[in-house]
Every structure is written in structure tokens, then in C-alpha cells.
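tool_call: predict_structure(chain=1)
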Amino acid sequence: MLKMNVKECISNKRSVRAYTEQEISDEVINELINLGTKASTGSNHQPWGFVVIKNKDEIQALSEETKTYLLKNLEQYPYLQQYKSWLTNPKFSVFNHANCLIIVYGDTSSHWYVYDCTLAAGNIMLSAHDMGLGTCWIGFAEHVCNAPEFKEKYNVPENFELVCPMSIGYMKTKMYPPVRKEPNIFWCR
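tool_result:
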């Protein structure tokens, strides 16, 4: 297992969209989720809940359902128009052909559930990177994974809303550090 310092981990983490077939053990998934729950949390509400899917056929079916939904409703999502060729490609997998998903939900009774659960997702992603795993936040899945039918199937309470659908797996290739433009900093002196 790799061990990096925090700066190294943050500086080198990338979204990963190509995974090997190697399965992630339940112990590793549990460790990642436990590390996720070490995130800061408003008023200590700890509003997170998690769905883990490790069935590759189920993930592929969910990818096809997501593609079908988005193509039928593309006019409602102008920000996804640029991906129409992906969505019509039968080889494209919304979940990057991963064999594991971690889906983060937040309890809406907490005003800060989106922030808290995003921090938890970030912890999971950085911890996964430290363990030699790759992750990718799957924005395409936000509609299907928050559908009442999906939530009912996976026993997600009605008052929990989707925050982060994430693919996760062992990286197929070595990733290089991301290149970022200079940040906008608005100083007050």
C-alpha cells in the first residue's frame, strides 16, 4: 500500500476514468468510508449515508439507464449537450467500466449536508489515491441515482439527497499530476 504525505497526495490526485478488473475488498471500502466520515461537519450533524455497488452487471445496467434517461431529456440539460456523442456511443460507460461505485447521500435535515458530504467525498477520493486507487465524481449520474426508484431499491431514506456518485477502482495507467491555471485570489490588505 502506498503512503504519501498530504501535499503529495493533493498535488498528484486526478480523476481516473480507466480501471483494471481487480476488485476492491470490502475492508478497503469500509476503511475509505470511515476515513470519509472524519470530514468536518456543520454542528456535528454527520449527515452522510453511503450506497456501495460492487456488481459489474448492475453498474453497467445503471450506466445504460443513465444514458437512456439523459438522451431522452437532453434539452433539459444544456450543459450536457457537448457529451451527446459519448451518450450515443454503445461502448461509453457512464461509470468508466468500474467494478465499484460509492454513492454519497446527505440527510437534508442538516442545513450543511451538501458541504459535509462533499468534504466526506473528498476525503474518500484523497484516501483512495493514497492507497493506489483512482476515483471519479460522476456528474452524469446525478439524476438517476437520486430517483425515488433508485433510492427505494438501495434503502436510501426519502430525506437523503444525492451529493456524489463516484466510480472507484485500481488505475489502469499511471496518472500525471494535473496542470492548473493560476488561481484567482482576491486579497484584502
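agent: Helices lie at 6-12, 26-36, 56-72, 84-88, 113-130, 148-153. Proceeding to next step.
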